[in-house]
Amino acid sequence: MDRVLVGLSGGVDSSVAAASLQHQGYEVIGLTLWLIKGKGQCCSEGMVDAALICEQLSIPHHIVDSRDLFQANIVDYLVSGYESGITPLPCSQCNKLVKFGPMLEYAKQKLECNLIATGHYARVRYDEINQRYQLLRAVDCNKDQSYFLYDLSQEMLAGTLFPLGNKTKEETRKIADEFKLKTANKPESQDLCLIEAYGSMKNFLDQRITQKEGDIVSLDGKVLGKHQGVHHYTVGQRKGLGISATEPLYVIKLDPVMNQVIVANRGNAGSSGCTVNRMNWISITEPSSPIQVEAQIRYRSPAVPVDVIPLNNHCIKLVFHDPQFWITPGQAAVLYDKEIVLGGGIIEK
Length: 349
What we know:
The chain has helices at residues 12-23, 45-57, 67-83, 90-111, 154-158, 169-178, 193-198, 201-206, 266-269; strands spanning 3-7, 27-34, 61-65, 115-117, 123-127, 132-136, 160-161, 214-217, 223-227, 249-255, 260-265, 271-280, 291-296, 304-310, 316-324, 332-337, 340-347. By secondary structure, it is an alpha/beta fold. Helix 1 packs across helix 6 and helix 3 runs antiparallel to helix 4.
């Protein structure tokens, strides 16, 4: 009987992942990571619900204190990013450095177990021709989470199961009802764990970054209004700027040195390209010449045609076939060939 360590957040998805694998004959062990210092749904209510699921399934439940790891790799990373005028994406970094990597190490060293599983909506398959594991989009395109998993390694893909990758959310809920899981009717979380813990990203940041009033300016330097900190804004933002204008204005740049938020109309807000660093080619080897694929630059944005030009030091240049309006430094650009996640990295500029 194969043994698998299942990451349990206390939500319905991870609960169904554990129950499904147990039903398939796996010896399932539950693991919950304690991530946030203080109150928060993901680490208080979630931890209790995860324990209840393990009790219901009669499986062991391990809790690992990962608060210091989360603080160093996610909290500090977020704060330094917002202070420097970018909008960091914590989830992909958390998946690699806090969740999948440490989980797989814990499984192998503590439990003599070579497999982990999560409730993420994504798929993995082995490419026999290239002898490489591939990360694929989930069958349910509305729930697909492959965008946040681009930074995983081949070792992580080889040791990970995604039981929900071939299921829709409706099917997951149905399975939860069939197994009579205690989390079957639990509402779905819509926010980052930090937002759940602090009420909003603004509250989280305001506790760590000093608010400093500055100017909201147009491209020609005209002062249009005031802000209470550049960390409250993100490139591409249109609503909530607190200024009046004859046409919609978008944030196109954050300047923490000058303490300015620069805005422009839609005609000046688009961009035809960007540079991406920290590239991780997850499903293919790094290309040595330009390729044409699709790029997704936000979790909920569509993948669009793009030319990829390899640069040095794990960097690439993306040239979009049509101008894009939400190219945000700090966010991920993830490359796809239809359902295959080729790789991804962090938008630099």
